[in-house]
Amino acid sequence: MACALALFMLPGWVLAGGTVRLVAAEMSPYIGPTHAREGYVAELVRAAFERAGYRVELRFYPLARARSMAAAGQADGLLPVSDSRSLEDDFVLSAPFPGASGGLLKKRTLKLSYPADAPGKPLDTLRALSGLRFGAVRGASVSQAFDQADFLKRDYVDRDLQNLDKLALGRIDLMVVDKFRASDLMILHRPHLIGQLEFLNPPLFRSDFHIAFSRKAPNHDRLLADFNRGLSALVAEGRIDDILLRHGLSVRKPVVSGREVLTIATVNNPDMLLMRKLSEEFVRQNPGVRIEWRVLDENSLRTRLMTDLATADGQFDVMTIGSYEAPMWAARGWLTPFDDLPPAYGVDDLLPPVRESLTHRDRLYALPFYAESSMTYYRRDLFARAGLTMPAQPGWADIQRFAAALHDPAAGVYGICLRGRPGWGENVTLLTTMANSFGGRWFDENWKPELDSEPWREAVRLYVDLLRRYGPPDAHLNGFNESLELFARGKCALWVDATVAAGMLYNPKTSKVAGQLGYAAAPVARAREGANWLWVWALAVPDTSPNKALARRFVQWATSADYIRLVAAREGWVAVPPGTRQSTYGQPAYAAAAPFARFVHEAVRSSNNQLPGRHYRGVQWVGIPEFPAIGHAFGAEIARVLGGELDVDSALRKSQADVTRLMRDSGYIRP
Q1: What pLDDT score does 16 carry?
Q2: Which end of the chain, C or N, has fewer beta carbons within 10 A?
Q3: pLDDT at position 255
Q4: 3-state secondary structure 340-386
Q5: How far apart, in whole angstroms, are the C-alpha atoms of residue 212 and residue 95?
């Protein structure tokens, strides 16, 4: 009882009526503290309880502790739960909602298939595959059918990653695993396996999720009934599909008779949201076409695109990718080239660095939607009031001094905003350019990591100091979009980030600080080389798309000069996608509407995404297949530092060891 009372007294755990307290174990990609909105399950559960008048407070713990706390009545319930057999004494389960999608993973070279009705006849299907060797995780319940199939040749291990390695080595034939779990493991731990494995379709083992309400929690019967009522309302309104879509966990919908369906995956940046809005014009020009949009946050987009490629899923017709992916994925045969573009498209109008970044062996494999470098944004009114002057080329020491002078949280203004959310395209993008400016690099000439070097320590210490002392609360949760919103609302005195934000910040429709905005070059320290980046968000057609011709038509439309003129006509010239076409910068109306145009044009033209002759260093990323895994792990460690879980030196030592091990396993470093 004393333990329960102590838990109730923790800050933030409110006992007022209308609050439901839940505990959860991270289960990527379905739920977790680093996912957008804490993941699909958390968003669905909150939405269902809100319909019934409740507020949800959710805390994450290791599974054993979360279950123990809920069983003791220290929380109202545990989620997500799929296997109910061991929970019946302590819990009562909610109505089901969509859960994991378990299946059989195999090498692409192993030719197998089973009938489309396999999920309805799992025992018959397993019996047909009984001559093969199955790998599963010890103690994990896959499904009742699999557990009862004692005729199978099973090989149990403790972790899914072990089975992934055994599958790659040919020691098992089929791996029993959730589709998204398998792809995440490949993306983050075994990137060399991407493209070598595939799932048997359709998935054989589908399992629903539940909330397990503790029988010892007061009013658990009422909470159960109210949640089920709220869930039923979400189902009736079709909102569960919407939530799944936001997290990239939906599947391609069946084709509607007489209509072509185009499935487009893109990032939830403002320019892409505008593209979705204006796509009604493409549909008007192409009668009979329907577009299914998958609009995701940056981290989720990259993971779900790689899921599609890692498991040969064929979910998307158009993918939003960048300068990192385009040449690398083209080399692997995953993308359709854009050969024979019509003269009206104006391929020679594309800025040379932008075009080059999307090219492999002299062929374009993606077309640029917008391009960006990096810059410093600041509030001219705050600088004037404090008697400060921003130099044309600030140093990081200047930025630190300005942030300290302007930090005024009592007035609702933070000294600085920077990307803090973990991800190789989020916090790692900025940190890499910071380390470059201090003279650091990711690797030496022999691919040995240098993350525990003094330049990296200087850069990361400065980054952490800036955000802890002068940044907004919970800075480790803020990515590009969150920082953009904070600055546009007048909450930040300084922001170092992408040049693409200038169009939103100078637009009075989307920014409260449009009249007080100033800009300067991205900060430097001891070196200018690599202190600013070149990134291109582009549209590509995967080789697995069943609608390649239509997909190419959409990509050409959305990246054309005509589309830029459409945006200008509908939203104004300040809102057009920047950085891709010389003709945009030749428009007097654009120069008049966008004071930053000449600066951004020159920044993009003079930027590069890899330092010449120094491929092991990189500007914001290193062009090797392993980098997303490396960047993800490193970004997560730095986010832990911001959250107070680690100190800088410990995070860099751990990252140095982890990256060294991955580079050795991948064959870059010889034993």
Answers
A1: 38
A2: C
A3: 54
A4: CCCHHHCHHHECHHHHHHCEECCEECCEEEEEECEEEEEEHHHHHHH
A5: 10
Residue 175's beta-bridge partner residues? Answer: 105, 135
HEC profile for 169-215? CCCCCEEEEEHHHHHHHHHHHCHHHCCCEEECCCCCEECCEEEEEEC
Whole-number Å distance between alpha carbons of 124 and 250: 27
Half-sphere exposure of 653 (CA within 13 A, CB side): 5
Q: Say if residues 554 and 262 touch (Cβ distance below 8 Å).
A: yes
Say if residue 530 is exposed, middle or buried (CB neighbours under 10 Å; 0-12, 13-18, 19+).
Answer: buried
Q: Cis bond leading into 368, ω under 30°? A: no
Cα–Cα distance measured from residue 322 to residue 358, given in angstroms and rounded to the nearest whole number: 8
Residue 251: its pLDDT value, please?
Answer: 67
Please count the residues of the chain.
671
With vertex at residue 83, the alpha carbon angle to CA 77 and CA 86, rounded to the nearest 5 degrees, is 80
Token pair, residue 499, equals 């040049």
Find the distance separating the first CA and the last CA of the chain, reported in whole Å: 55
Residue type, 450: E
Going 643 to 648 to 652 to 653, the CA torsion angle's sign is negative
Other C-beta atoms closer than 10 Å to the C-beta of 296 total 24
User: What's the confidence (pLDDT) of residue 17?
Assistant: 44
DSSP helix/strand/coil, 402? helix
Task: Give the residue among 78, 108, 110, 106 at the shortest CA–CA distance from 94.
Answer: 78
pLDDT of residue 259: 56
Q: Give the pLDDT score at 528.
A: 85
Give the residue carrying structure tokens 């909105």. Answer: 37
Dist CA 570 CA 277 (whole Å): 11
Please tell me the predicted confidence (pLDDT) of residue 304.
86
**Low-confidence residues of the chain, pLDDT below 50?**
1-17, 256-258
Using alpha carbons, select from 554, 597, 600, 602 the residue that is nearest to residue 573: 597
Q: Tell me how far apart the alpha carbons of residues 49 and 19 are, in angstroms, rounded to a whole number.
A: 9
Taking alpha carbons only, the member of 271, 252, 264 closest to residue 318 is 264
